[in-house]
Amino acid sequence: MFIFVIHSGSVPVPGEISLADHGVLFLDELPEFDRRVLEALREPLETGHVDVSRARHRARFPARFQLVAAMNPCPCGHLGDTRGRCRCTPEQVARYRGKLSGPLLDRLDLVLEVPALSAAELRSAQPGEASQPVRARVVQARERALARQGRPNAALAGEALREHCVVDAAAGDMLARAVDRLGLSARGHDRVLRVARTLADLAGEAAIGRAQVAEAVQYRRALAERR
Questions:
Q1: Residues 152-193 pLDDT 10s
Q2: Are 149 and 156 in contact (CB under 8 A)?
Q3: Cα–Cα distance between 132 and 69 in angstroms, integer?
Q4: Per-residue pLDDT at 188
Q5: Contact 51/58 with Cβ under 8 angstroms?
Q6: pTM across the whole model
Q7: Which residues 6+ apart lie within 8 Å of 66 measured at CB?
Q8: Pick the CATH number of 16-108 from 2.40.50.140, 3.40.50.10490, 3.40.50.300, 3.40.50.2020
Q9: Ranges of each domain in the chain
C-alpha cells in the first residue's frame, strides 16, 4: 500500500490518505511499511493535508484522518511471552522498533500495549461494554468541546490550547516532571494536554485535574519506552 499514488503521467492524484479523509486509516504491521511511506505520514498528521509537487503541477489534497496502527513487540511477535517463545536478540528488537522514527512517533497521541491472554483468561472473559453507551459518551464529550471552544480538542493549538487546557497546580507539576523524565518534546507536551482535555470531557469535568494528566502521560510513557 502506498501513502499517495502518482499517475503514470505527471499529474498528481489522491492516494490512500486522501481517500481516508474524515475517516480512519488503519495500518497493520506498521514497521513492515517502507520507511519513506511512513515518513510521508508526518506532514498530513500535523497539517491535515498533503502537498504533492511535480514538474508542471502542484496539488494539495485533504488528509485529515484518524491513524490507527498495530505492530508486534518484536519480529517474531512473542517478546514478553511467559513461555519463553521469543528468540529475538536485543539488537533485532531494537532494529525492528527503530523502523519507526522519533518524529513520526511524536505525532501519535495514544500507545497501548495489549498482552497475550491465557486460555483461562479467554474462557473467563466477561462481555465488554456495548458500543451504544460508549458512543453516547463520546458524542457528549465532543459536544462539550464544541460548545466551549468551537472546535474539537484535537484542533486546539497556540493561544486556544493555553486558554482551554488550563491545569491546576498539582496537575501542572506532574506534567512538568513527565516532560523532564520522559524527554517529551513541545509537540508531545501539547498532545498530552489535548488528550487530558478530552479525558476530562469524557468524565464530564469542567477542569483538567491530576487524574486526567496522569492517564494522558501514561499513554506517552509507553511511546517513550519504544524509542
A1: 999 999 999 999 999 989 999 999 999 999 999 999 999 999
A2: yes
A3: 24
A4: 92
A5: yes
A6: 0.85
A7: 23, 24, 25
A8: 3.40.50.300
A9: 16-108, 131-225
